[in-house]
Design goal:
The chain is mostly helical. It has one domain. Helix 2 packs antiparallel against helix 3. The model has no long low-confidence stretch (mean pLDDT 87).
């Protein structure tokens, strides 16, 4: 979970413990599914950004947060 904390901007928006935990678990799950040991810092940043933005919009389900991040990465790979 601690890995996503480095990506959370200090812009005045705060997450409660439950949400932070869900975001961290989603980040870890997305990285694991995408072969964590081969991900660049840019890809990890995109994963985190998508999870954080979804959480800001109210998503709290770890599996949906993970799915949002993976869909963004796979969409970027297909489009790129």
């Amino acid at each position: 979970m601690a890995q996503i904390l480095q990506f959370i901007p200090m812009d005045g928006f705060a997450f409660d413990d439950y949400t932070t935990r869900a975001m961290g678990e989603a980040f870890d799950a997305a990285c694991a599914e995408l072969q964590d040991n081969n991900l660049s810092e840019v890809v990890r940043s995109v994963i985190a950004e998508r999870i954080i933005e979804a959480a800001k919009r109210g998503e709290r389900d770890r599996q949906r947060l993970c799915g949002i991040a993976i869909a963004a990465i796979k969409g970027d790979l297909i489009a790129g």
